[in-house]
Amino acid sequence: MKLLIRGGRVVDPASGKDAVRDIHISDGKIAEEFAKPDRVIDAKGLVVSPGFIDLSARLREPGYEYKATLESEMEAAVAGGVTSLACPPDTDPPLDEPGLVDMLRRRAKSIARARVYPIGALTVKLAGETLTEMGQLRDAGCVAFSQANTPIADTQVLWRALQYAATFGFPVWLRAEDAWLAKGGVSHDGEIATRLGLPGIPPFAETIALATLLELVRATGARVHVCRLSTASAVELMRRAKEEKLPVTCDVGIHHIHLCDRDLGYFDAHCRLEPPLRSQRDRDALARAAADGVIDCLCSDHTPVDDDGKHLPFAEAEAGATGLELLLPLALKWGQASKLSLAATLARITSEPARVLGTQAGRLSVGAPADIAIFDAGAPVRIAAESLRSQGKNTPFLGYELAGRVRCTVVDGAVVYEA
Amino acid sequence: MQRNPQLNANGELQHLLSIEGLPRDVLTQILDTAESFVGVTEREVKKVPLLRGKSVFNLFFEPSTRTRTTFEIAAKRLSADVINLNIAVSSQTKGESLLDTVANLSAMQADIFVVRHNSSGAPFLIARHVKPHEHVVNAGDGRHAHPTQGLLDLFTIRHYKKDFAGLTVAIVGDVLHSRVARSLIHGLTTLGAAEVRVIGPQTLLPAGVEALGVRVFHDMRAGLKDADVIVMLRLQNERMRGPLLPSAQEYFKHYGLTAEKLALARKDAIVMHPGPMNRGVEIDSAVADGPHSVILPQVTFGIAVRMAVMSIVAGN
Amino acid sequence: MTKLPDADTLCAQLVRELAPRIGPNTGMVGLYTGGAWLAERLHKDLRIEKPLGLMDIAFYRDDYAKRGLKHDPKRTKIPFDVNGCELLLVDDVLYSGRTVRAAMNELFDYGRPESISLVVLADRGGRQLPICAQYCGARVDVPAGMRLTLKRQESGQLVLALEPSRAA
To answer: Distance between CA A29 and CA A412 in Å, rounded?
Structure first.
C-alpha cells in the first residue's frame, strides 16, 4: 500500500532533522517521493516521529493471562505510539525454552500490531544456576538475554554467563542489584522508609552490583545493557564506564525520572515499583543523566497489575505500573523540564533504543522500516482507567492530565491505530 | 498531596492510624479526654454509656494478648459490644484478602475496627475502604506505628512531668524495628519536647533517623546523661543473635539499663517500657521494680487512653 | 431588652432557703462549668461538711451520636460516698432538663443516694423531660435564638448573661 503522510512536523532524531515535510511509504518502508498515494494522512499541526521503541514491556503471556493478554497490551502499545517493544523473560514459565519464544513471536505476529522482540532468560527458570541454551533461543528470535528482576546471587554463575554470552556476541541485559542487600526490601532505604516503617533497599545494593558487573564486563568483553538505573551513584559509575569505552549502555524507567520516595504518600501501592522510587536527589540525577546522554534510553517498564495485586498493604502489593500509553506524555514532560529540543527528547525513545536493540527502525530515512507515530504534542491526555487500553489500570499518574496524544500509528507501512 | 486520611473534612479525628500528621491540638484533646477517663476507671462502676449499642471488632492479624485485652476492657467500659477476631487462625489462612475480610465484617454492622497487622500501612488501606460511619484504630502495623501506645506513653510522661517543654527523653534499643519508638518520637516532637534522643548500635537504628528530629547516641552513658525520661524498647528474641547483634549478654552489657547507668540521668528521672519486658536483656530487674519505674501505671493509663481514642473517633 | 436578675441576690436567696435542710448527711455536687462556680459559692456559704463534688456529664449526654465527643471533658471528682447521701445537685440554668437527666444517671453509677434535690440559679422553661427544680432562684424569659449563661468575673463575682446560642 502506498501511504502519504502530508504536512506534518517531521522530527527524525537519528539525523537531527526537524522540519515540516511529507513522508512517503511504500512496501512497508520509507520511500522516495511518488505521485499517486493509495491513502493520504493529513498530519497538519501534528508531529511525525519514528514509532517509539520500548525496551521493556510485559505482555503477561504466557502464564499471566488473568492480568493482561497479548491482544490488550498490543492495542495499548500502538495506542501509545509504540511500534517495537522488547518483552522481559519473566513470564510463567520464563522464556528459557525455544518453543515458548517461538510461540510468543507467532502470536505477536498474527495480532499484527507492534513488533515484539523477546528477551530470553539468561539462566534456566531465571534461577541463577544453569545457563540457558542461548544459541537456540537466539535462533528462535531472542535478541538478548536477561534475568528480569531476579539478580544472580552467585558471582561465579554471573561471570560464566557473561563469558558464554560474550563468546557468541549475545547482548546481556541486566538490572544491577545485589540479591542479599536487596532481600526483603520494598522501598528506598532512607527517611521516607523510616517514617513509613518499610524495609528499605540501600542505594549501595545497586552500586555494589553495578561495580561487580562492570568489572566482569572488563574481564569478559560481554556487551551489557544495564536496565532501570535508580541511583545517582550508579549514574556516575556508568559515566566513568562510558569514558573508559566499555561496551555498555543503560536505560531508566519512565517513572523514575518523575517520581521519588516522597510520592509514596500514605502507602500508595501504585508507587510500589522495582527498582524502588528513590530520593529526590537520585531522581534529579537520573533525569539529568537521560538529558546528557549518560543514560541512553527511556523505557516504560510496562507491568500490568490487577486490582487484587494493588489492594494490599504496601510491602505485600505487587510491584509494577502500566506504562505503554504514558511513555510519550511522560517523555515529553521530562523533555520540556530538561529544556531539550523535541528531537533530543524523542531520541531517547526512538533512535537510541533502536541502537541498543540493533534494529533499522527508529529512523525516518529512505529505506528504513515504516514504523511511525503521529501525535499532537499539545493535546491533553487524561489518565483514567476507562481510557487506558491496557488491562493494567495501575499507575501513580491516575487522575493526572498530561500532554501528548497519539493520533495515528503505522507499523511496517500499515496503519495499526487511529484516534 | 493527599489529605491526611485520619482527619475528616472538618479536621476532626475519624480514624487513628498514626501520631505522625496529627495536629498538636488533636493530640492534646486525646490526652485531656483520657484524663477524664482515668476518673472513671477509679470509681466503682467503671462504665459509661457512651458507646452503648456500638460494636468494636478487634481484628488482630498478629497475635497479641496484652494489647487486645486492654482494647477489649476499654471498649467494654464504654458499654460497647466487643467481638474478637483472631484472623491469624481463620480466614487469612484460607487465602481471603485483607479487604474481603473487612468487607465481610462490615456487612455485620461494625462501628470500630481495631486493627493490628504485620504489614506497615495495612490500617491505611482498610481506612480507604470502610464505610463513612466506620472507624479504624491502629493497634500496631509492622514497624510503622502504634499510636495508642505512643499516646499512653505521652500521657504517662505528662502525668509525672507535667510539661513537655523542658524535657530530655531517651529512647533506648531496637528503634529500627520499633513502631512504638516511631509513634513516641512523632508525639514528642509535635508536643515540643526539648530533646529526643535515640540510643542503640548502628545495626538497630534506621536510615535517616535524624530526620525525625532526634539526636543519635551509640554510647548509652552519654545518651542517658541528664535525661528526664528513659524509654526502654523491647528486644525481640529473633533479633538477639544474627547479623544485627551477636548475643543477649553483649546487648545487656552495652545497652541494658542498670542502676549504675540510671544514676547518670536526672535524680527524678522516670523509667518506662512498653512491655513485655525481657528482664536481664534490656533492663535490670532491680530497675524494673525500682522507684523510678512507672511501667505498671503505664498499663492503667493505657485503658483510659484507648477509651478516649474510641470515644473521640466514634463520635466524629 | 430583658433585664436579668442579679446573681448575688439570687445566691443569697438560695442560701436562705437551703440553710434549714443542711445536715451531716448532705452532699453537694455542682455541674461544670456554671453549676460548679455556683456550687463553690453555696457550699462555702452553707458550710456543708462533706467536701464539694464537681461533675462533667460529657460521657452521659444523649446527643453523642449527633455531636460526638466535642469539648474537652473535665474530670468528675466526687470525694465522698454517694450511698445513702441526701444530695443537692447544683446547676446554673435549667432548660430542657437533659443535662440533669445525664447527671442523675452518672450519679447513680457512683452509688445509691438517699435523695437528690435540684438547685438552680435560673429556670428558663422549655422543658423536654419531666424534670423540675426543688430550689430555684428565679424564672427568666429568654428571647428566641439566645441562651442564658452564668459568667464569673476576675473578681470572682457571678453574673447572669445573655448571648446568641451556638448553631446546633
So the answer is: 7
